[in-house]
Amino acid sequence: MQKKRLLSMALTVVTTTAMLVTGCGASSQSAQGEAQDTTQNAVETPKTETETPASTSESTGEKVHITYAQWGNETETAATQAVADKFNQSQDEIEVEVIKIDHDTYVTKLNAMATAGELPDTAIMSEAGVLKFAENGLLADISSMYDEGDSKPLDSITFKYQGTPVAYSAANEVLTLWYNIDLLEEICSKQGLNVADFTPPASADSAWDWDTFVKIAQTLTVDINGNNALSPDFDPANVDVYGCTVNTLPWQLEVWAKSNGGGYYSADGKECTINDDATVEALQKIADLSDVYHCAPPVTSAANALESSLGSKKVVMATDGTWNVGTFLGPSADFKYGVGVLPYMKEKVTICTGGPNVVFATTKHPEEAMTWLKWYYQEENSWSLIEAGTWMPILDKWYTDDEFTNKWIDNPNYPDHDMYKSAVVDYARENSQSTAWYYINATDEFNATLDSAFSAVWSGDQTMKEAIDEYYDELNDIFSTNN
């Protein structure tokens, strides 16, 4: 069973590590767990003299030198440089040098470099750090990276500051509903149920509404005496198998607010709407799965991560991101699994994420920097991660052209082809919306505070309305101060 993201790539073993460190900081169970937060103390753009336009090999006869910063260790830096070397050898105009910055000092170092006017040309950043740097004038407009007619990154994974693209995710990830087929079939057999009626739909067109999802989860929840949660004899204190669990990381819970017609923020990003009735109602429904319907386990630290939910073989269905195919499920999982679309409250929606690379506004060579990143973003350079299921492609052709889609999902690491295409590929294309950090600043601080607010709800000490009312002023202040 695959537990780590370091996977060998088709090109070379080291290529995987190189692309991995540019990947999905928010795709792990901790939204910024691997990606160092770059929002703290972000400096303003230093005042410098107007720079001469970028020179090229045509005018100088020498390659333009581009630097790319990342927070890997020595091995990862060497691996990233190996990928850059392949790019360097593929053309005679640009030379990329990889700069190693220690993970623990990444933010401090970038800020110091910005103050000194010594930022690299390009770099990896955390999702939550992008807009702070953009706000301070430190990120370049990358809207010209792709030409008319090019296959482009999906709009949902484009970081925008005041409507201008400033970064693209290096990979795409969406939230879906995963389930243990073996456990589902076992419970249905014992209760005399038709498995097809309880299998999560793979199409948004046939997605369960919330009430249906809850009832099915209750039916699949059984106590140690074999009674399901709809039975008057059900013992909620002695549950053997739970029907579902929902990942309660604050950034993931945003999907339910959106599904219920609300959201943490207004659609135009100008208001904090975490206390909106629709949002509060949606979040309370998540708490009710455990507290009222007893069809989900109580929320404890990391207890509803996919590894500890489906992995325990005591939970039938669980929500989480598509990266789990490569990091947890994969071909070596000791149970058969499937994937379906999320249930919905009012709107059929999922959210996406993926770690970005950026071009700094201080570069003397913006065109060359974008040329490098455009090449670096090619799926061929991260193919092993895509093939394994840890990453999803970013270019729209992989979602619209069957030739590319089939190349992506026709492999033994994935569940059934038609199931995955409908529940993941089509769903990501048609029903995915950007996670808040693509257009809202300071989401890391906001989500950390929201996590504190939620803790009293998960423990049963407060309702969701009471908790959000208590924290609203602090949450709104974080939003209004930074946006």
Account of the protein in words:
- By secondary structure, this protein is of the alpha/beta class.
- It folds into two domains: 13-172 and 354-395, D-Maltodextrin-Binding Protein, domain 2 (3-Layer(aba) Sandwich), CATH 3.40.190; 176-350 and 437-482, D-Maltodextrin-Binding Protein, domain 2.
- It contains 19 helices and 13 strands.
- It has helices at 13-20, 57-60, 74-90, 106-115, 130-135, 181-191, 195-198, 210-220, 250-259, 277-291, 306-309, 324-329, 366-376, 383-388, 397-400, 402-409, 417-431, 443-458, 464-482, and strands at residues 64-70, 94-100, 122-124, 158-161, 164-169, 173-180, 222-223, 239-245, 315-321, 337-340, 350-353, 356-359, 432-434.
- Strands 6, 7, 8, 9, 10, 11 and 13 form a seven-stranded mixed beta sheet that branches.
- Helix 1 packs across helix 3 (74-90).
- The radius of gyration is 23 Å and the shape is globular.
- Residues 28-43 have a biased composition (Polar residues).
- This is Sugar ABC transporter substrate-binding protein.
- Keywords: Cell membrane, Lipoprotein, Membrane, Palmitate, Signal.
Percentage beta strand? 5-15%
**Whole-number total of structural domains:** 2
Number of strands: 13
- Quick one: biggest sheet? 7 strands, mixed
Tell me the span between the first and last alpha carbons: 42 Å
Helix content: 25-40%
Q: What's the CATH superfamily of the largest domain, by name?
A: Periplasmic binding protein-like II
Assigned CATH architecture of the largest domain: 3-Layer(aba) Sandwich
Kindly provide the name of the CATH class of the largest domain: Alpha Beta
Structural class: alpha/beta
So how many helices?
A: 19
Spatial extent as radius of gyration: 23 Å
Poorly predicted segments: 1-58
Oligomer: single chain
Mean pLDDT: 87
